[in-house]
Amino acid sequence: MVAVDGSNDPALRAKLAQVNLFALGGSGAIRTAKWPEGNGTISPNGTFKLSNVLPGKVRVVAGFRGPIRFALMRIEHNGAEVNAFDVNPGDQITGVRLIFAYGNGVIAGRVEVKGGSLPADVRMKAYYRRVGASLAFESPKSTELDGRGQFLFEGLTQGTYRLFLDFPSGAGAHYLPTVEQDVTVAGEGRAEVTFVVDLASKKRDN
After folding, report:
1. Lesser CB count within 10 Å: N end or C end of the chain?
2. Which long-range contacts (CB under 8 A, 24 or more apart) does 203-206 make?
3. Cα(125)–Cα(177) distance, integer angstroms
4. pLDDT tens per residue across span 101-156
5. Domains of the chain (ranges plus CATH)?
């Protein structure tokens, strides 16, 4: 079964159908002999099944498709928190409960440029990775900065995020420094972050 921490709303739990579940070995390889239809999906009633799992030490992790407000926080087996399962041939493991958090946190950011001006045609892009997300397959979430050099990430669960500022295109973009910064989102709060791009420092480095 799956559950949403702090909520019994069936409509909210039904949104977990957007999540894929995977059985992983210690090396990070998927531990299924094949991938049957419906394997690793969460039903609207909150049940899931991982079939044809190969023997060995196996972790269950979640994969997220596109923007999603969930994060897998912990896994329980018969009421006790676990990190992995020792799977033997023919095992039928039941009593597994996955607890997800639903996020309403926000990171709002802006860019401050020092020591010069950015070329007019330079594009700026912000993206983040969740720090310590060992229970998930999460590709970086990104957004373009607006004309005022601002950006917004919404639907974040509580935790620490590593933010990056990159310059994907524009005159001299490859000479500009990639900036990174950690920020913590508390509950449904709003975290403010400022990326400082020091062009004078970059010139000294060159």
Report:
1. C
2. 203/115, 203/116, 206/175
3. 13
4. 888 899 999 999 888 888 888 889 999 988 877 776 766 788 999 989 999 999 88
5. 2-102 (2.60.40), 105-205 (2.60.40.10)
**Which pair of tokens denotes residue 139?**
């590709």
State which amino acid sits at residue 59: R
The Cβ of residue 138 has, within 10 Å, a number of other Cβ atoms equal to: 17
Q: Residue 7: which residues within 8 A CB-CB, separation 6 or more?
A: 13, 102
Q: Cβ atoms within 10 A of the Cβ of 201, count?
A: 13
92 Cβ contact list (under 8 Å, min separation 6): none
pTM: 0.73
> Are 163 and 126 contacting, i.e. CB atoms less than 8 angstroms apart?
yes
> What is d(CA 27, CA 31) in angstroms, rounded to the nearest whole number?
10
**Residues contacting residue 40 through CB under 8 Å, at least 6 positions apart:** 20, 21, 22, 23, 48, 50
Strand partners, 169: 123
How far apart, in whole angstroms, are the C-alpha atoms of residue 173 and residue 44? 46
Count of other CB atoms within 10 angstroms of residue 94 = 7
